[in-house]
Write a structure and sequence with these properties.
Blueprint lengths: L1 H17 L3 H26 L16 H6 L1 H10 L3 E6 L2 E6 L2 H10 L13 H5 L9 H12 L4 H4 L3 H22 L5 H17 L5 H17 L11 H39 L17 H22 L14 H14 L3 H15 L1 H14 L8 H5 L2 H8 L1
Antiparallel strand pairs: 1-2
Helix pairs in contact: 9-10, 10-15, 11-12, 12-13, 12-14, 15-16
């Protein structure tokens, strides 16, 4: 009997559905869409109350087309709204911050329960969820604290000789190219210089010229992936960019592993030398001094991993001993990916404009040269003390 009742009910439903036409459903669909748009606009108005923002945003998609196809106008308009403003991207309410103090507060309070930091429309899909830019809460804070000492003025001064050599070598090539070709566009050369310099500072000893060229190509693909529509399918710009990121992460994982091995060998050799009260032989393969930022980072990581292994070996419950955070090759590779990515676009634009304006206003260029001649009359190598005295040059860079 139950089966008969079910068949009867199904027959009634089927008959009812067959009598419904698209035109009869159209008013309902239109009402639902208009209702959603009204609710969305009201919610944006309430969420952005007290903050400057657009008076109206396109429903569902927001201002995504303006951001992708006319980014200069989008960011210029957003900039005019003030240090803290709002907008909608793909129906998501977003805050835009340009104030240092407010940004610091945001970084301190970002969490899944509060609000989340958004780098770019395609950022998380492109760079990967394990990237430092998309870690939230205590995990993000811990990683920032772990790498902060690598970016102090004193720490960065250790790489000055590497940077200066890269810059001098590249500029010499610029002049050779200009002599043979005449006028050339500067930005591609500046970008290549920034990529070469940042690679040398972060992971230089582990790169061959062929690998450097491949890294530059993949980062260019990733850069294009940040400026396209957020749709990934075979052959699309975002798809190519994601594949480039995967290749880079695999390469960086291998480099991290090599650095760990070198720094672990150096630590072991130092302990043996200390135990035997002897000096290290600088010609020995065991004498491995840090040569790049990754090496300095891995010195701390290797020590933390050694302590972890010791604690696990002496613990009654080894499974309860947790490895140090952000010590896995993949986690470190994702952070390196972000460091290298951040070093190649904004700084390239800044340096290009700086060179443009110095060429446009030769009187300021002459003052920069006068300061350099005064501080380095014999063109001495750069050091931190000399850089700290470059008051005029520093103000030109800031301007």
């Amino acid at each position: 009997m139950n089966q008969g009742m079910l068949l009867s009910a199904l027959s009634v439903i089927t008959d009812a559905v067959s009598t419904i036409s698209f035109w009869s459903l159209l008013p309902i669909i239109a009402g639902l869409v208009l209702g959603y748009i009204a609710v969305e606009q009201f919610w944006f108005y309430r969420a952005g109350q007290g903050l400057p923002g657009p008076s109206w945003v396109p429903p569902l998609l927001g201002n995504v087309f303006s951001m992708v196809y006319d980014p200069f106008a989008f960011w210029d308009n957003q900039d005019k709204l003030g240090p803290l403003s709002w907008n909608s991207i793909f129906g998501t309410f977003m805050l835009f911050c340009q104030d240092t103090d407010i940004s610091t507060t945001i970084f301190k309070n970002a969490s899944n329960d509060n609000f989340m930091i958004c780098l770019n429309l395609n950022g998380e899909r492109l760079l990967g969820g394990g990237n430092i830019a998309f870690l939230q809460g205590d995990v993000h804070k811990n990683l920032r604290q772990q790498v902060l000492h690598l970016f102090t003025k004193k720490a960065l001064s250790k790489y000055l000789f590497v940077q200066e050599k890269c810059i001098r070598d590249d500029i010499a090539k610029w002049f050779d190219i200009a002599k043979s070709k005449g006028t050339v566009e500067m930005r591609p050369f500046v970008r290549d210089l920034n990529m070469f310099t940042s690679q040398s500072v972060f992971i230089g000893p582990y790169l061959t010229p062929e690998v450097r060229a491949r890294v530059c190509e993949d980062y260019q693909l990733m850069n294009e992936g940040l400026l396209c529509m957020p749709f990934s399918f075979p052959g699309s710009t975002l798809w190519k960019a994601i594949r480039a990121r995967k290749r880079l992460v695999a390469l960086l994982c291998d480099i991290v592993s090599q650095s760990k091995v070198r720094m672990a060998a150096a630590a072991t050799a130092a302990r043996v030398s200390e135990a035997e009260s002897s000096e290290l032989d600088e010609t020995s393969t065991a004498y491995q001094q840090p040569e790049c930022l990754l090496d300095f980072w891995m010195v701390d990581t290797v020590n933390a991993l050694r302590d972890y292994e010791s604690a696990k070996a002496t613990s009654d419950d080894p499974a309860s001993v947790q490895p140090p955070l952000h010590s896995a090759d993949t986690a470190i590779a994702h952070t390196l990916l972000d460091f290298l990515f951040a070093a190649q676009d904004a700084s390239s634009s800044s340096l290009t404009w700086l060179c443009h304006y110095l060429a446009k206003y030769p009187e300021f260029l002459e003052k920069v040269r006068e300061e350099q001649a005064q501080l380095r009359p014999a063109d001495e190598p750069l050091d931190l003390a000399t850089i700290n005295q470059m008051q005029y040059t520093r103000q030109v860079v800031k301007e």
